[in-house]
Amino acid sequence: MPPTLPTLDRTIFLLQNSQDSLYAHLSVNEFITTLQTIQTKFEQTGILDKAQLNLLFGPTGSIQEISIDNGWGAEFIKLATEVDKTTGNK
Hints:
This protein is mainly alpha-helical and 90 residues long. It has one domain. The protein has helices at residues 4-16, 28-45, 50-56, 62-69, 73-87.
């Protein structure tokens, strides 16, 4: 299992316990669905959508805005770092 899958699991868990942010372009539920879709695609095909993960976990992105608004901004940085390691986006 690549290191990203537990990272996505943790992010989904945190999002499930979060409220929408005024600064995010999608709702919490939409981000959860997107992350679950990435997971399912990887599990079925072995292909990880690195570009989409880099966008979702990028600095000042919507998931980061949600994390800050819901008190897990510091943990988001750690999660994003794990995604960067997996996708090669350093």
